Amino acid sequence: MNEVEVVVAHSERATLRVGDVFLKVDADQARIDVEVEAMSLAPVPTPEVLWRKPPVLAITAVPGTTLGRLGRPSTGSPAAWAAAGAAIRKLHDAPPPSWPGRAGRSIDALEAELDAECALLVTRGILPADLVTRNRQVAEAALRPWTPAFTHGDLQIAHVFVDGDEVTGIIDWSEAGRGDALYDLATFTLGHEDHLDDVMTGYGTDVDLDTNLDVIHAWWSLRSLLAVRWLNDHGFDPFAPGCEVDVLKSRM
């Protein structure tokens, strides 16, 4: 008999695995709508939708293993990271969806959210003021106009599966939409800076990494600043070695 594995669970949503089927429970049906539509449009391997009965979405497991997880060394080869970079480029080159995703928030809205979050991190004593101030300065480089691309919006390495040096599937598309391609690249390499060159090898030499490195660094800081309090409040540990707080410290 198959056991029920709790993949992730918090107050907003939960994902369970039963054999080769994932059951995603989400009270926000708009997120599920985006996930189903984005998977149907994305020109990369994605899970198959088996059925949908709100608030549950059933999808197939994808073959292979993830490239790793934040805070842990990656087991993927340089060629696997490059293959992931090529898949991300294929996604970014596709016609962008009609709706804005997490990577497509307006500069004004993002700046307001960032400033409010930085203030809370300091007033609640979650992070020291100098760490927050320095990373808020670094994050400024991300707050600039960008060319709309088809973005995943939550492209953690745990969401990309490979078999050898081939990408077999990309999961968790609820934040997908029109957005900044560099946000995806930064999210994917967060905490794994040593693999950025491998990713860019697959992504394409026509994209100048030196020109965009400050923006990628900015997104590392910005994403981490926005995530720390939420993770801390929902039972996750952003202070674990190699995770969000270490990412922020690396910018000091």
Annotation keywords:
single chain; 3-stranded antiparallel sheet; Aminoglycoside 3'-phosphotransferase, Chain: A, domain 2; alpha+beta; 252 residues
Question: Secondary-structure blueprint of this entry?
Answer:
Elements: E1 4-9, E2 13-18, E3 21-26, H1 29-41, E4 49-53, E5 56-60, E6 65-66, H2 78-93, H3 107-123, H4 129-139, E7 148-151, E8 160-163, E9 166-170, E10 177-180, H5 181-189, H6 196-203, H7 209-233, H8 244-249
Antiparallel strand pairs: 1-2, 2-3, 3-5, 4-5, 6-8, 7-10, 8-9
Overview of the molecule:
The structure is a single chain. This protein has 252 residues and is of the alpha+beta class. It has a single domain, classed as Aminoglycoside phosphotransferase (APH), C-terminal lobe (Aminoglycoside 3'-phosphotransferase, Chain: A, domain 2, Alpha-Beta Complex). Helices cover 42% and strands 19% of the residues. It has 8 helices and 10 strands. 38% of the residues are buried.
Q: Portion of residues in helices?
A: 40-55%
Number of helices: 8
Strand content: 15-25%
Radius of gyration: 18 Å
Whole-number mean pLDDT: 93
- Please give the CATH architecture: Alpha-Beta Complex
User: What is the CATH homologous superfamily assignment?
Assistant: Aminoglycoside phosphotransferase (APH), C-terminal lobe
Tally of structural domains: 1
Instruction: Work out the number of β strands.
Output: 10
Q: What would CATH call the class?
A: Alpha Beta
The CATH topology is given as Aminoglycoside 3'-phosphotransferase, Chain: A, domain 2
Strand-pairing-aware structural class: alpha+beta
What separation lies between the terminal Cα atoms?
A: 51 Å
- Major sheet details: 5 strands, antiparallel
